[in-house]
Amino acid sequence: MSKIIKYYILICIFLAACARPLPPSGGPPDKTPPVIASSYPESNRLNYNEGYVSFEFSKYMNNNSVIENIYIIPDIKVSYDWSGKELEIEFDEVPDTNTTYAVTLGTEYSDYLGNKPEESYTLVFSTGSKIDSGSIRGIIQDKNPSGVELYAYRLDDINPDTLNPTATMAGYRSQAGTNGNFGFMALKDGKYRIMAVRDALRDGIYSEGADDFGAYTQDITVRQDTVPVISMKIGGKIDKVKPKLYNAESYKSRIIRAYFDEKPDSLTINKNSFLLTDTTGRDTIAILSACISFAEQNCVELFCSVPLDTAKKWKLAALADGPAVIKDSAGNSVDDTANIAYLSAVGDIDYPKPEISRMPFRDSSGSVSRFNAIDFILSAPVDASNIINRVKFIKLQDSTAVDFDLIMFFDNVISLKPRKPLENDQWYGISIDMMKISDFFGTAAPDTVYMLRFKTEDTRNYGRISGTLTDSSKLGGDIFLILESADSKTRRILNAGPGGKWEFESLPPGDYLIEIFCDTDKNGVYTYGNAFPFKFAEPFKKLKDVLSLKPRWNIDDIKIVF
Q: Contact at 8 Å (CB) between 547 and 512?
């Protein structure tokens, strides 16, 4: 055999030996999560001063993802060395004496097939003869808890009111796994403040407006002989950015479109929220109506009392104070430094006729809710007094009239709310006769009768879940119950009635979970807390038992203690 062939064979053998083995092709895909098979030193080793720690994984890993998910407390400079499935973490500086160290692997690393671990792993050792053995364990109650980071701040010897997570890195960090579990280990005795953050920037700092956030309901006292177990929730990004009015245009001679940089809360839109003057300030035009635009995003349409003079320049201000202030969905009032827009008038007087531009659902629809309001959207605002006598609502089987309330939250939305639930599995009809209806400008609607027929849902197989609630918390807020089906298609919320009685009726068959919370800030929704200035989350409780509601069954007498 020639030397060239021998040399080629040796190279092939060497490359094959160095190649990283991968699972054979074919067969079912590997979905097994990776685990740490062993670590060195063993956890809780005392007087450890060998200058490195190591982890052996059960599978070949995505090395970079592992390194990106390592947290070492207290902080120390390190370097990393891989050999097959084993990772060695070498200390590039001498560890502090008589100090407990915790090396935590989070949950956002993966093997080469993308499988992630189910929970984090922490290796604890001490360079002295004592280990700080305090710990906190918990769970994130969220549909997608994997990767949520947990920050623990030790409050001893600091003023808690000055703790700002947007500028201060937490002394202890952990990460929730796919099952939501997390833990802090090697904690000193003391008081701790816990926060949950979905760290979008991966910088270990809470970034307001970028990261999801949730605080725990109280500070936690840690002692070496106890292990507090906590349950937390994480909310969305905390929006403190005020909406801005960035543009306005004259759409018709008496119609202005005002554009905001985000969608205003429709319930805060009011004709008194705006002031329209010419640029000299001498001419003020009254606004007859303000409506959310269903044709343009983030737009409010204003209807003026008279045509705007095309020879003048006009200034529109969204008022930033007073009782009628535009707000966004987070409750932020319009920015007082970006609430003015300038526009030129147009002479077009071809105003849109008030027509029904959007039905609540298609004609002849089935399975319509027996309880919800039925909304019709108009192309132009109208006076409610012109509408009420033009609407007929009947049960089609025998032409029985349905008692309803007509509500117009906006001048261009007709909302019909039956005074009692509609009958089960019945056909109903609604007619709206537009004859003699006109908008604020006197523009008459076309002589049209709009018809809508629908069939209500068949609730004969539906059931009920009810019980009583005892509030022993003494927290001073209303207790709300949230019922949600396992498939998330049904979600109800209610406040317990007199004597703590509660009832969810007309529920489709299925599995349900109940959660309760104490509305301490009395805003009617769950509050996840605030980072700075700090505010605790509202206390909550999630019932562990799944309630399986079978067709035509009722589940009663459930007793809940908060």
A: yes
